[in-house]
Structure to design on (707 residues):
């Protein structure tokens, strides 16, 4: 018997009927696939643009221009007398004199002030530290590298691109900068201070360490409180609580709680935790408690769904062996539900990580220069830091804002990666 | 051929179940159940059932689907406690102790009355862990070597040891269906129960795996009292010494397996075992 071509093969009425509809069915399937693919591609493009835009804006923040000043550590300008503490000398005076010596042609008082403005306000401390580190340089002239002012930094970074001076730098200043560049007195360095210093009003000095530490401490408080509480609540509601009107009501309320605007939790934190319980303002401890309130519903809902998804046969198997409810829960149900619980936790934590509004209410929006060293120190967090910098008029903060966003995304990525690692471990068991 | 009889016209028709016939009681009973009624909310699943499980014998519970035999089995080790709205009345006595008494701990009870379920349900852990779990929670082994020994003998009794001895650390869920079921039996044996309840243990298995399980059951009855729910009458005939026929939540007839299958007293039993419905 020879094989027949399916097209010409004799067919029954039913087969013909099915065939009539086939083209339509295939078309529908193709349309749906195309839709799905378009959605995925669209999402990818959006994420790509977001990351590309932020990264390109953030890159300048990772470099900082430094300028070399030949500092004349003369005892006269330092107003140094034998036996004086090196920390108490007149460095501002010395720095100015040294700068004027570099530009002897600048005479007018106004011009001199403008010239001073090219150097970071931090420069006098830099030359002070240099002398304290090298006391034998007293009385000599030494080249010391100091930061340029943020306007100069932005100008140097953008003049190549734009080719014209910015509003904040006038012709005269541009000429001085050109002289310095031509003399090789300007250098671009990696801005390690962005990661090692805290917030500052001066963009060239501002860094993320304070906010990053604050975020870290706040997240620890949130995790330590919300994970055990959330999982315990979910386990109790799912495995132990009787199913009645009360538990139904609790379930409805937990779902509602997940939808409460986050600033309400901030108000609650302010009214109850700070005003009633007298905990310190702006502290990671309070921030963590407030974010716990916000994260709990998410963790409870995800954990309950995950616990519910554990097949009842596993519970029966354990109970049938004589395991108690608690033993069944902890040795079988929880480990099986753990991947889902971790997913819920990471979603909740990611939400908490990016949360600004409730933290504004409890004072974590303050301008804080110190790196917090404990859970009760005043501190701020990354999203609030981003908000503060984005709000600042100085152009130097533009790149810092984007760079801080990158750091926040990096933090999020690390957090997710560790959760994914834990998930993998639980799944492989 | 015969007219197909549905379970409905069996009771609404001329055949009425009026108490059970046969010999539901015996002298050397391990467990005695009397006047058992089970309700799921408003629904009564078991109506006034009384029977004995004879010591070191296999008792088969047979009957059409939904007749309450699984429900009855699960009441024996109080697994139905886990189902809210399930109410059990009547008396369950094992070795003179009432199982539903206030001071009876269901945890201890379930250690003494083990259960094997219809669908193999190994824990998603290693083969070793599966068997070791019971002895561990009950503290039956004081040392690692003792635990190893319990695991090994349990697997041997379940006829699985030779097949898995090289991969005790591999997940139990990776075994074949029949092996998984024998693993579950090994897990049950590991806590040395006195009674083993089996809820259609071979229904998900192929004939070869079924034969292995059946052989295993015959061996196990030397040490344990066994109650088995099954849909296969051949299986009941092969493995059991006593058979109880359930119908619509009532015990219709109980007696020696040989007698039930060759010369049933009740019309319903005869209809069922002769394959007229079910």
């Amino acid at each position: 018997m020879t094989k027949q071509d399916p097209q010409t093969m004799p067919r029954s009425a039913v087969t013909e009927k099915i065939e009539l509809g086939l083209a339509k069915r295939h078309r529908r399937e193709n349309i749906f696939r195309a839709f799905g693919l378009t959605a995925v591609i669209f999402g990818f493009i959006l994420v790509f643009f977001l990351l590309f835009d932020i990264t390109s804006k953030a890159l300048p923040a990772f470099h900082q221009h430094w300028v070399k000043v030949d500092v004349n550590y003369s005892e006269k300008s330092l107003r140094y007398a034998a036996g004086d503490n090196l920390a108490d000398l007149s460095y501002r005076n010395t720095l100015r004199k040294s700068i004027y010596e570099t530009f002897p042609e600048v005479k007018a008082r106004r011009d001199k002030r403008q010239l001073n403005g090219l150097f970071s306000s931090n420069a006098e401390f830099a030359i002070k530290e240099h002398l304290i580190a090298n006391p034998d340089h007293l009385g000599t002239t030494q080249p010391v590298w100091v930061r340029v002012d943020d306007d100069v930094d932005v100008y140097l970074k953008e003049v190549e691109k734009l080719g014209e001076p910015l509003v904040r730098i006038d012709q005269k200043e541009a000429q001085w900068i050109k002289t310095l560049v031509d003399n090789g007195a300007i250098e671009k360095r990696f801005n390690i201070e962005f990661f090692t210093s805290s917030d500052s009003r001066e963009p060239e000095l501002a860094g993320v360490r304070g906010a990053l530490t604050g975020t870290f401490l706040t997240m620890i408080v949130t995790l330590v409180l919300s994970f055990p509480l959330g999982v315990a609540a979910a386990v109790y509601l799912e495995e132990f609580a009787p199913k009645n009107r009360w538990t139904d009501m609790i379930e409805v309320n937990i779902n509602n709680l997940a939808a409460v605007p986050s600033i309400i939790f901030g108000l609650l934190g302010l009214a109850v935790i700070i005003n009633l319980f007298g905990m310190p303002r702006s502290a990671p401890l309070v921030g963590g408690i407030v974010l716990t309130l916000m994260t709990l519903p998410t963790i409870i809902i995800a954990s309950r769904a995950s616990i519910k998804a554990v097949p009842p046969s596993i519970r029966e198997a354990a109970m049938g062996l004589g395991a108690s409810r608690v033993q069944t829960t902890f040795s079988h149900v929880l480990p099986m539900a753990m991947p889902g619980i971790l997913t819920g936790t990471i979603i909740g934590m990611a939400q908490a990580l990016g949360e600004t509004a409730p933290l504004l209410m409890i004072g974590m929006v303050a301008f804080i220069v110190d790196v917090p060293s404990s859970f009760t120190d005043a501190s701020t967090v990354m999203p609030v830091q981003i908000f503060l910098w984005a709000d600042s008029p100085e152009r130097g903060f533009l790149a810092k804002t984007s760079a801080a966003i990158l750091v926040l995304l990096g933090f999020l990525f690390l957090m997710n990666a560790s959760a994914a690692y834990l998930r993998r471990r639980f799944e492989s068991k | 051929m015969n007219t197909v009889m549905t379970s409905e016209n069996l009771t609404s028709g001329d055949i009425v179940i009026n108490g059970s016939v046969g010999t539901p009681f015996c002298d050397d009973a391990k467990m005695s159940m009397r006047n058992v009624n089970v309700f799921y909310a408003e629904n009564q699943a078991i109506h006034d059932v009384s029977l004995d499980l004879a010591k070191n014998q296999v008792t088969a519970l047979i009957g059409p689907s939904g007749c309450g035999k699984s429900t009855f089995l699960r009441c024996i080790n109080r697994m139905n406690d886990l189902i809210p709205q399930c109410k059990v009345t009547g008396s369950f006595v094992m070795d003179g102790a009432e199982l539903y008494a206030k001071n009876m701990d269901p945890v201890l009870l379930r250690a003494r009355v083990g259960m094997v379920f219809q669908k193999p349900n190994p824990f998603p852990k290693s083969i070793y862990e599966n068997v070791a779990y019971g002895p561990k929670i009950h503290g039956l082994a004081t040392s690692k070597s003792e635990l190893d020994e319990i695991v090994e003998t349990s697997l041997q009794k379940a006829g699985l040891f030779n097949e898995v001895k090289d991969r005790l650390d591999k997940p139990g869920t990776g075994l074949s269906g029949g092996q998984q079921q024998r693993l579950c039996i090994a897990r049950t044996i590991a806590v040395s129960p006195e009674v083993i309840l089996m809820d259609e243990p071979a229904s998900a298995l192929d004939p070869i795996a079924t034969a292995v399980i059946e052989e295993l059951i015959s061996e196990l009855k030397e040490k344990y009292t066994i109650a088995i729910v099954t849909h296969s009458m051949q299986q009941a005939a092969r493995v059991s010494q006593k058979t109880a026929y359930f119908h619509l939540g009532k015990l219709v007839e109980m007696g020696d397996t040989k007698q039930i299958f060759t010369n049933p007293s009740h019309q319903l039993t005869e209809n069922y075992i002769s394959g007229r419905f079910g």
